[in-house]
Design goal:
Helix content: 40-55%
Number of domains: 2
CATH topology of the largest domain: Rossmann fold
Largest sheet: 5 strands, parallel
Number of helices: 8
Strand content: 15-25%
CATH superfamily of the largest domain: Response regulator
Number of strands: 12
């Protein structure tokens, strides 16, 4: 089972999540603060991080940014509010997904499994494809730009692989949600937009004049033309 790092300051939530996941066989380590969480991240090397957004001291967004400076470990953000602004800020900082608290253990576990499947499931043909400056290795789940590897989070690599597998095909936000995140909630379309913005930034694809990921206004996205 995956090793999970939970960073949560609320004792009741922390104990409940730890107990629920451990009963299902997960190895869970917990931290009360962002500072403690960053220390455990280096020591434990978890497979996934559950990160509360509202933390004392270093808040969840700051922790997420610090993690992304050195690691592409999957991050699921926990928030007590469904506030659009807070969620978008967290996603822009590098989170792969989010869960609004309170959430049942089975929901948390399902999201964990969905995020980790993005790392384990190659998409399309097992070969290296070249798209302009990009080299996409579908078997190795890696992307390089001008010969230098680009560090992509699980949601970012799966989104790029899915779009590039069918150049010129337009995918709606809902289709991408269901494929990449395995979600069926229409409100979660912001996951797609935030991921596209992060992905464009990393592969050198300016939103004002994109070469790779084209926006189809009012519908979704497509890959190309170059």
């Amino acid at each position: 089972m995956p090793r999970v790092l939970l960073i949560e300051d609320d004792p009741s939530v922390r104990e409940g999540v730890c107990l629920g996941l451990r009963r299902r066989g997960h190895d869970v380590r917990a931290a009360e603060t962002g500072e403690e969480g960053l220390e455990l991240l280096a020591a434990v090397r978890p497979d996934l991080v559950l990160l509360d957004l509202m933390l004392p001291g270093i808040n969840g967004v700051q922790v997420c940014r610090r993690i992304r400076e050195t690691s592409q470990v999957p991050i699921i953000m926990l928030t007590a509010r469904g506030d659009d602004f807070d969620i978008v800020v967290g996603l822009e900082a590098g989170a792969d997904d989010y869960i609004v608290k309170p959430a049942r253990t089975e929901v948390i576990e399902a999201r964990i499994k969905a995020v980790l499947r993005r790392l384990a499931t190659p998409v399309g043909r097992p070969e290296i494809e070249f798209h302009g400056e990009l080299a996409v290795d579908r078997a190795g789940l890696t992307v390089a730009r001008n010969g230098e590897r680009v560090a992509l989070a699980p949601s970012e690599i799966k989104l790029l692989l899915h779009l590039s597998a069918s150049p010129e095909q337009v995918f709606s936000r809902q289709q991408l949600l269901e494929y990449v995140w395995e979600h069926s909630y229409h409100a979660d379309a912001r996951l797609v937009d935030a991921c596209v913005r992060r992905l464009r930034s990393k592969i050198g694809d300016p939103a004002g004049n994109p070469r790779y990921i084209q926006t189809v206004r009012g519908f979704g996205y497509r890959f190309g033309p170059l």
